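Hi support team,

I've been running sequence recovery on a batch of backbones for a student project. Most finish fine, but this one hangs at about 90% for roughly twenty minutes before it completes. I'm not sure whether the input is malformed or the queue is just slow. I've pasted the structure tokens below so you can try to reproduce it. Let me know if you need the job ID as well.

Thanks,
M.K.
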């Protein structure tokens, strides 16, 4: 069956077009915000650990609320969740304007953590809602476009964020961030998303919370192929948190001839370009869905191999490093989109939010631990930056190999 084109999908599916536009706009502002926070922390503390801690706090807060957020996405109107989390983030983004110096650094972690709780609710609701507005035959196209657009927002937002922060200061970035959340909320207001709510979710919320969250875990562990695929993203993030969340930032802060904010932006631009290329390439060439589970693990190892080369060539040539980062994140982007499509196809609407929340929970915990450990080891000189890239890239390659060989759903004598 011929796959629908990206432009055709946007032209013919108005609900998806509105959801897509809202997500891209809010993510664009998110990266303006992130570059500004990196700059404030690093300029005031010169601490690699505190820089990594920002990512750790972000991902832990994203993770800790996921089980409950997934339950809400299955129980309540998913569009309403997305709208109100956007409005709440408008207020939080503007609150960063009150930060003035090193004495306020703690508030960066409090505010960004709160925003990530809300962002986690938004992402889970969005992922669970997508199959309700896009036919199954078009899910590969929709997810590839969604991932490519996310990465475009990342690279564009990070690069423009670096320029804006260098020229106008951090306050301008926070105002732009708030503005994009407001636009996103307005775009979503007229969106209608069909949804099936299970009978088990129609009782009192708090008295049934733990029982219904547990059903999400039961659904995952009850199907071996799903159990495996839920670990796809965390298999990359177990080392990716250190590589992309700490080492890449520190490398960006040391680029000769560029301001610190713009240096951050350059490598995040490369990361975003790669994350966009991967889903598009995977949609074009990886057509045999039966092979996707084993391919996902190989893509993790491939991403680690490119990061290994980043470590060996670091400081040799900026353009070469940028190309290698693009390639590393092309592999990780393909990993992300293939695992997401399989989860959407395999899981029923009434429990999809809870399954995705577990997926996001494990991914976030892996990223948080990785970035915290990497920041601590680098700051305390257990290794230098180049050695850090090499060590963590080897961990990523081993993780991908383990995922490839772990086949709980395989028929004896086959590779799936």
């Amino acid at each position: 069956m011929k796959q629908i084109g990206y432009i055709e999908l946007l032209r013919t599916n108005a609900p998806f077009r509105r959801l897509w536009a809202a997500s891209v706009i809010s993510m664009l502002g998110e990266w303006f915000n992130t570059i500004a926070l990196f700059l404030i922390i690093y300029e005031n503390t010169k601490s690699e650990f505190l820089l990594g801690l920002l990512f750790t706090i972000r991902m832990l807060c994203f993770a800790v609320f996921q089980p409950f957020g997934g339950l809400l996405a299955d129980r309540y109107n998913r569009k309403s969740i997305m709208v109100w989390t956007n409005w709440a983030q408008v207020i939080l983004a503007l609150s960063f304007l009150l930060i003035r110096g090193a004495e306020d650094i703690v508030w960066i972690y409090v505010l960004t953590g709160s925003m990530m709780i809300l962002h986690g609710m938004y992402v889970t609701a969005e992922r669970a809602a997508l199959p309700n507005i896009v036919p199954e035959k078009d899910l590969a196209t929709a997810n590839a476009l969604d991932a490519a657009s996310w990465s475009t927002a990342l690279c564009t937002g990070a690069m423009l964020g670096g320029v804006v922060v260098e020229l106008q200061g951090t306050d301008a970035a926070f105002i732009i961030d708030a503005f994009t959340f407001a636009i996103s909320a307005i775009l979503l207001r007229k969106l209608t998303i069909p949804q099936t709510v299970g009978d088990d979710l129609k009782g009192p919320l708090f008295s049934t919370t733990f029982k219904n969250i547990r059903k999400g875990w039961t659904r995952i562990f009850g199907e071996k192929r799903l159990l495996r695929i839920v670990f796809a993203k965390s298999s990359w993030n177990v080392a990716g948190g250190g590589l992309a969340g700490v080492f890449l930032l520190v490398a960006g802060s040391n680029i000769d001839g560029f301001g610190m904010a713009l240096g951050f932006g350059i490598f995040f631009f490369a990361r975003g370009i790669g994350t966009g290329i991967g889903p598009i390439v995977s949609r074009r060439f990886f057509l045999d869905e039966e092979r996707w589970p084993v391919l996902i693990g190989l893509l993790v190892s491939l991403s680690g191999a490119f990061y290994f080369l980043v470590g060996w060539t670091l400081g040799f040539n900026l353009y070469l490093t940028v190309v290698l980062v693009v390639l590393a994140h092309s592999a990780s982007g393909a990993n992300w989109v293939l695992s997401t499509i399989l989860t959407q196809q395999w899981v029923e609407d009434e429990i999809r939010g809870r399954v995705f929340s577990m997926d996001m929970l494990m991914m976030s915990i892996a990223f948080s631990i990785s970035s915290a450990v990497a920041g601590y080891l680098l700051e305390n000189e257990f290794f230098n930056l180049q050695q850090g890239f090499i060590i963590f890239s080897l961990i990523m390659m081993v993780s991908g190999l383990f995922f490839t060989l772990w086949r709980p759903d395989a028929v004896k004598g086959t590779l799936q």
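--
Follow-up from support: It reproduced on our side and the slowdown came from queue contention, not your input. The chain is about 80% helix and 0% strand. No action needed from you.
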